[in-house]
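step 3/5: co-fold with thiamine diphosphate
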Amino acid sequence: MSPVTIPEVEHAYPGSTGCPGCGANLVMRYLLKGLGERTILTIPACCWAVMPGYWPSHCLKVPMVYCAFEATGASLSGMRAALDMKGVEDVTVVGFAGDGGTVDIGLQALSGAAERETDALYVMYDNEAYMNTGIQRSGATPWGAWTATTPVGPSRDYKREPKKDIMSIMEAHGIPYAATVSVAHPEDFVKKAKKAKDVRGFKFIHALSPCPPGWKMNPMKTVEVARLAVDTNVFPLYEIENGRVRITKKGKGLPIKDYLSIQRRFGHLTEEEVKRMQESVDSSFKALEQREAREG
Ligand SMILES: Cc1ncc(C[n+]2csc(CCOP(=O)(O)OP(=O)(O)O)c2C)c(N)n1
Ligand code: SF4
Ligand SMILES: [Mg+2]
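step 4/5: write tokens
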């Protein structure tokens, strides 16, 4: 039997106001298991800004600052500077933001914090749209998805632009550590959170975060859909440490229709369009594998 490596201690309690089956709940839970209690969060406008609930019945055991939507990067740099002035070194400063708050509105502040080499961790939970305000498309919404602002119909079409590649954008800043994580692989997730905590400098974690209402799926399938994202190579699990890439968990190489077919946001796609998506996923994953082989 393999030893249990996920800490039993909880720093995110039941009682968040998230929807049933919210993947972002699990992202926070596993992240805090990896980081521990000496953590402070800064969270901009997003679902997680409201999910902790009202004081004094807040569901997080760690303190959090609620910052402006576009300001997570600036907020975490300020928090780190304040802690440094006080001589507090054992607290991990974390920016925890949605995809809209990261790849779109918060990108400038995030870039600034990475360029300043702030000793902090930035976690993007990616539900692939602006969910808190009613499922509007973001730069992280994948090609082909229905959203409220990319509706399927005769006059306006589903999303026609590819998903913004935030991992490459962050890597271009020369940061020491970046990783992708999945709520279907908690051991891999917790290990990466622990590693990010111990690396000095700016760290980035990209967490795929299934959202039942936004993805139009059964709330009981959150972990299943997250696992399928890895097993179809739609969301490969890897880390980039000091410029070297390593795939940390190999998927099963299943066809992407297995991932798409349990989400009604992709229900309108034709066979030809699914085939094109498959080709795009295959070529991105091949490039990742080739890069790992070169650098390994
Ligand atoms: C400057 C500003 N613009 C717009 C909003 C409204 N707003 C609040 S949450 C949100 C959506 C955030 O999307 P994302 O970052 O992807 O997080 P999610 O809601 O999906 O968890 C928006 C547009 C705001 N609070 N502040
Ligand atoms: S809308 Fe989506 S991300 Fe927001 S609380 Fe509900 S399930 Fe979670
Ligand atoms: Mg979002």
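step 5/5: annotate
The longest strand covers residues 92-98.
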